[in-house]
Amino acid sequence: MIKWSMSLMPACRALGVVGSLLLKERKAHYVSQIQRQYIQPRQLFAARVNDQRRVTIEATKDNRQKIDWNPFFYTWELAGPLTKNIDR
């Protein structure tokens, strides 16, 4: 089974989409047309995801001490010494 999705912009196109998917004569052509339209966006997304910098969990643990958590605790009105709250 092929899993895929498409965006419906604007929503009034939904009737045409449903009609194309329900009619056996139109479904294969419509599905292949949508798949062709999504090739480039899918490739661009995959390239962007693979290009992101990866950070190890050890690096994030080392960086934890460098984060200023005071605005967070102030915003959420958390009481007590701020640095002790984070070490729990």
Structure commentary:
This protein is mostly helical and 88 residues long. The protein has 6 helices and no strands. Helix 1 (14-22) crosses helix 2.
Please provide a brief summary of the model.
It contains 6 helices and no strands. With 88 residues, the chain is mostly helical.
Question: Unreliable runs, pLDDT <50, ≥5 residues?
Answer: none
N-end to C-end Cα span: 47 Å
Number of strands: 0
The backbone outline, from C-alpha atoms, is elongated
Query: What Rg is obtained from the alpha carbons, in whole angstroms?
Result: 24 Å
Question: What fraction, in percent, of the residue positions are helical?
Answer: 55-70%
Query: Helical stretch count?
Result: 6
Order of helices and strands: HHHHHH
Structural class: mainly alpha
The fraction of residues in strands falls at under 5%
**Taking all residues together, what is the mean pLDDT?**
76
Largest sheet: none
Main traits of this protein?
6 helices, elongated, 88 residues
Layout: helices, strands, pairs:
Blueprint: H1 14-22, H2 24-37, H3 39-51, H4 57-63, H5 70-75, H6 82-86
Helix pairs in contact: 1-2
